[in-house]
Each structure stands twice: as structure tokens, then as C-alpha cells.
Design brief:
With 70 residues, this protein is an all-alpha fold. Helix content is 60%, strand content 0%. It has one domain. The longest helix has 22 residues. 3% of the residues are buried.
């Protein structure tokens, strides 16, 4: 039996948290570089994707305790 080197169907808590942190990185960078008054709407899609990921963690993957610390 052959096992894949990297399981593409399972994702760890650390990977999910890293993905959410990365998605918010663009928004934070804009605020740091341009200031709070000059933030654009460019990060809106990233925020939507992070929200969807967090929602899936809670509702589909039953990771309620994981999200409490985000």
C-alpha cells in the first residue's frame, strides 16, 4: 500500500490558523504602510475568505475550541 507524502485532504489546526493569519496580513500591512485613514478595499476578498474559513472551522469541522483563541 502506498501512502501519499503529504495528505491533501486533512489540514491541521496550525495550518488553518496560519491561513487565516496570512489572509489578514494584507489588510494589516496596508494600515501600517498607508495609515488607518488611507486603507483601501483591496483586502475585502481576503477578509471574506478568512471569515468563510473560520465559519467552516466552527460549523463543518466542529473546531469551536480552535476559533476561540483566534
Amino acid at each position: 500500500m502506498f501512502l501519499p507524502e503529504q495528505d491533501r485532504y486533512s489540514t491541521s489546526k496550525r495550518q488553518l490558523e496560519s491561513r487565516i493569519a496570512t489572509l489578514f496580513g494584507g489588510r494589516v500591512a496596508e494600515e501600517l504602510v498607508f495609515g488607518a485613514d488611507a486603507v483601501t478595499t483591496g483586502a475585502s476578498n481576503d477578509i471574506e475568505r478568512a471569515t468563510e474559513l473560520a465559519r467552516n472551522m466552527v460549523t463543518r469541522w466542529v473546531c469551536r475550541s480552535w476559533v476561540a483563541n483566534l
